[in-house]
Structures are given as structure tokens and as C-alpha cells.
Amino acid sequence: MTNNDIHATAESELPASAPKSTKKEKQLYTVTFFYNWCKSCGLCSAFCTKKIILKDDTGKPYIEDMDSCTGCRFCEIHCPDFAITIKNRHPVRRSTDGDR
Amino acid sequence: MLERAEIIRKEYLRHDKKFPHVWCPGCGNGIVMGALLRGIHGLQLSKDDIVLTSGIGCSGRMPTYIDFNTIHTTHGRALTFSTGIKLAKPELTVIAVMGDGDATAIGGNHFIHAARRNINLTAIIINNSTYGMTGGQYSPTTPFGSKSTTSVYGHVEHAFSIAELAVTAGASFVARGTVYHAVHLEEIIQQAIMTRGFSVVEVISNCHVQHGRRNKLGGAVEMITSYKENAVMIGKAAKMSPEELEGKFTIGILANVKKPVSSEQYQRVIAEARQNAEKIASEKETNGVKRYEE
After folding, report:
1. What is the pTM (predicted TM-score) of this model?
2. CA-based nearest residue in chain A for residue B181
3. Is residue B101 a contact partner of residue B129, using CB atoms and an 8 Å limit?
4. Are B245 and B268 members of one domain?
5. ipTM score for this prediction
6. Which residues in chain A have Cβ-Cβ distances shorter than 8 Å to B184?
């Protein structure tokens, strides 16, 4: 019976914490450009589904709003020069004050 | 853990060759190369078991950059060299990368006869509708009426359809993809490699520097977007009317037939001929012995 009791208490406590725990955390990504191989063809910025890849004065791509990346990898597989890598990124959980 | 893109860059490319590669910015050859490498990585084939051959042209530069057993052959003869390699070492996976002019003009006869013989090879034909490396002359796949260095007033001849030619010539597996549909391309390349028999993958690619510029098709982005708009999957194309298909092309698997493979049949012939020769030799030996005894 003790098991049931624990179960019951766990369930009763659940609603308070439910909104946070059930909400799936958004997966973040890091897009890295390997500028030595990039030829500024503009395919990545033209076909980006979120339009977050911008071009600088020389045509090289850069991203300001990295959190908007959905990780579709369109730019990675369509880069003719093998210059884009996309990696999963974990959010920084506490302030580290540059100790990392 | 390394990402797939990093593994491909670190393990499959030859970093002692000059990178970035020679192809123009935005060229589809790089996308095809990426799809080929991802396909082979997905199949988990050993690098030592793969032979990559190429002819001459922009696509001919591809084996230079990839760390397989590679051979850069003469113009149009990628398939003949591949046939030789396959017959000598049947256990290897042989892939030939060719351009449209390389495969259908200079090596046109080799191409149709490789398809007729049904040798266990994979041919990846990058079709950019022009001879890009030599300055934009018209090729067998240049569309009717389009301009090139050698057809300034519009091309007067009609174009080949490489995939349909391969189907008619008797290839086991024929598929067509574009550089826009890179994931689909990766899948059909994987299927082509796994198919026993001659498998052809035609890839519609962009040459915005020669073909696109002369015909005002725009840059790399505009040309690749046009493939997105004009490519129709073959299943969907069957339900569409000829009017709707005007100016469009089909992609997907056009043929997948099981047939006896000539390179395997050739091994059988070798084995039978050897047995026969041994039998004749042993008969001669016994006859000789008999005569000696008499």
C-alpha cells in the first residue's frame, strides 16, 4: 500500500510542476562556417528556410540569430564546398562568467 | 562525437589536394560529390573496396578529391576502364562519374554498350547541358534553341534524354535526380550502388557560368530553384496531363529490372573454360603416357 501512497503523492504534486516538465525544450543548433573553403556562392543564404543566414560585404555568410536555426541541414547538404557544419547545442544553464 | 559532415570532410577527402576545389562557386558538382560521399558513408562500405573512375571535364576532377581507389581516365573512357577493373577484380564496387558530354558524346558508344552488356557498375552522369570546362560549347543534352559558344543563334539540334536512353539500352537500374533534391539523390545513389547490374543515375546540375549566363537563366540560386519548380516525381507525373508536363522533367526511379549480370557470367565462363582446359590437358597427359608405355 505504501507504493500506492507514493504514487498518489507523486500524482498530486504533478499539476504544479506539469507545465515546465511536459514542455519539450527546444533543440538548439550551432552552424559553423569554414571560411577557408567558402566561395561565397550564396546558396546557403538563399535557401535557408528561416532566412537567418546573412551575407556580409564580401558575400561570406554569417548568422546573428543562431537560436532560430531549426537544424534542417539544407545548407549543410547543399554546400558545394563542404564548408558548413551543424551541431547540436545545449543551452548554457548557469552563468559561468567566462570560466568555461 | 563527430557530426556526419565532419566525418565526411575528415575521412573521405584528400586534404593534400588543393581545397577549396576547382569548381565554380555554386557548382552542382560539389553537391553531387557530397551526396555520393554521404550515400557511401550510409552504406558503410570500406574505402578500400571502392573504385571511383572519371573521364575528362569538370566532373573528371571529382576522383582527385576523394580518398578511394581512384583513376582519372581519358575522355569518354571512364566506363571502359571501369569494365576492365570490374572484370579483373569483381569484388570491388566500381563507380564511374561522368559529365553529359563525356558520357553521351565522346563515350556515347561505350555508354550504350555498357548498358547493353549489363556490367555490374554504377554510372553517375552529371548533366549540366553544356561543355563547361572547355568554354560552353553545345553538348548532346543542350536543349533545342538554347545558346552556347558554338550555337550563337540558338541550337538547331535536339537533345538526348540520358536516363531514357539508358532504359532503352537495357540498364538494370536507371534513376534521375537533381542537385536541389540532394537527399533524394543520396538515396538513389545508394540504391544504384546496391543494385546488381548496370545502374545509371542522371543528375540534373547547373552550369550557371556557361549555360546559364548565355541563356539568361540566372545564377546558381535561380537555376537550382528552377529544378525545384520543374522537377516532378515519376509517380506524380503519371497522373498529370501532357499539357501540365510541358517544360518539366521527371525525377525518381525510371527502371529497376533484374537481369543476369555480364561480369558475373564472365566469371562463370572463366571457371568453365579453366575446367575444360584442365580436362583436355589431363587427357593429353594420359594419352602421352599410354603412347610411352606402348
Report:
1. 0.86
2. A78
3. no
4. no
5. 0.81
6. none
Q: Do B5 and A82 touch (CB under 8 A)?
A: yes
**CB-count burial class (<10 Å; 0-12, 13-18, 19+) for B15:** exposed
Note the Cα A84 to chain centre separation in Å: 15
Residue A16 domain-assigned? no
- pLDDT reported for residue A9: 47
Tell whether B173 and B35 lie within a shared domain: yes
Question: Distances from the Cα of B68 to the Cαs of A8, B35, B79, B230, B284, in angstroms?
Answer: 62, 15, 17, 34, 47
Closest B-chain CA to A84: B5
Contact B148, B136 (CB under 8 A): yes
Provide the terminal-to-terminal Cα distance of chain B, rounded to the nearest Å.
79
Contact criterion met (CB < 8 Å) for A41 and B21: no
Identify the segments of chain B with pLDDT beneath 70.
Answer: 288-294
Based on the domain organization, do B133 and B191 belong to the same domain?
A: yes
Closest CB to A78 among B23, B24, B31: B31
**Cβ neighbours of B222 (radius 10 Å):** 14
Cβ pairs A/B, distance under 8 A: 71
- B204, B229 Cβ separation under 8 angstroms: no
